[in-house]
UniProtKB/TrEMBL annotation:
Name this polypeptide is given: Alpha/beta hydrolase
GO CC aspect terms: membrane
Organism annotation: Staphylococcus chromogenes
Keyword Hydrolase set for record: yes
A UniProt-annotated Pfam family: Abhydrolase_1
Length: 318
């Protein structure tokens, strides 16, 4: 007789975390399953719209918690956050989830900028982290950006695009590269052209906006908050991010560490994520390559992604 699978339940909660109203969305089939807290990137770029649109369902093995960081989505009141403030918020959220689901530890799944928040969280509070899962892992952010620029130049040379190469040669990267509008335009253009940005399938701005505006369970205001945060940016967080070097703490991280990396990712490069991985102090660490993926392997290679996520927690899943 075929085993019946419980239906998925989706609930939305608003919490006061460090005197800020913040929203979470919980997906579950069985609340006794391990809790997976998803820390999104950006800054200000929630993952739920894209996981939902592409039916990336983790609920067969986890109770999944999508947290929108202050300033975007369900937590859309604009605030000037710091990275440490986000770490502190995530810590308080973990305490809430531990109590709510009666579990001693949670699993972390962090994407892109979220890997900065999550790495600090795992470093500072290892006793509450069952496993850290980094997707598009950052290490030394400025060096990562130099690798992106050099790789784009290589693609352009291979195409014989001398005009494009001249434009790229004018770029000089420093810690304020996030303010360089000229470079940002070139970067967005070429990563989209070579399908090395969000998805190896190609994922333009118009498609992203469509996905966000169709997000289920979000109000219209919450959907617009995502677009607003994308347009306004987060100057303080971006400034901190460009000066981040996680290699300084990697050797002091002792929780189990899983890194997943799209080979074609030119948002967070394979080389920098691998350097970070080699520095990790934890005795248990695994690195997974996604040969056909860019920055979102959970979209580009969903089946492989779900298989790995199952393997991480399989002994404990119901």
């Amino acid at each position: 007789m075929k085993k019946q699978t419980a239906s998925k339940k989706v609930t939305k909660e608003y919490l006061s975390i460090n005197q800020k109203r913040q929203g979470i969305l919980i997906e579950t089939r069985n609340t006794s399953n391990p809790v997976l807290l998803i820390i999104h990137g950006g800054p200000g770029f929630p993952l739920y719209p894209f996981m939902s649109a592409h039916q990336v369902d983790l609920t067969h093995h986890y109770t999944v918690v999508y947290w929108d960081q202050p300033g975007t989505g369900m937590s859309g009141v604009h605030t000037e956050e710091t990275i440490q403030a986000l770490v502190d918020d995530a810590y308080q959220l973990i305490q809430h989830l531990r109590t709510k689901f009666n579990q001693s530890k949670v699993y972390l799944m962090c994407h892109s900028f979220g890997t900065i928040v999550g790495t600090h969280l795992a470093h500072q509070n290892p006793q509450y982290i069952a496993t850290y899962i980094g997707i598009g892992q950052l290490g030394h952010v400025l060096k990562n950006e130099h690798r992106i620029l050099n790789q784009i130049k290589m693609f352009v040379r291979q195409e014989g695009d001398h005009g494009g190469l001249q434009l790229l040669e004018k770029v000089h990267l420093d810690y304020d590269f996030h303010k360089n509008k000229y470079y940002q335009l070139l970067r967005e253009w070429y990563t989209a052209r070579y399908k090395v940005g969000f998805s190896s399938r190609g994922y333009g701005l118009f498609k992203m906006i469509q996905v966000i505006l169709k997000t289920p369970h979000y109000s219209w205001l919450e959907r617009l908050n995502i677009l607003r945060s994308g347009l306004m940016g987060a100057p303080r967080l971006s400034k901190e991010m460009t000066r981040t070097n996680l290699l300084d703490i990697a050797q002091e991280i002792w929780v189990p560490m899983i890194i997943m990396q799209g080979v074609h990712d030119l948002q967070t490069t394979l080389e920098e994520s691998r350097i970070f991985f080699e520095k990790i102090g934890s005795r248990y660490k695994r690195y997974y390559y996604f040969q056909d993926a860019a920055h979102a392997p959970f979209i580009d290679e969903t089946e492989k992604f779900l298989f790995i996520m199952k393997e991480i927690v399989a002994p404990h899943a119901t």
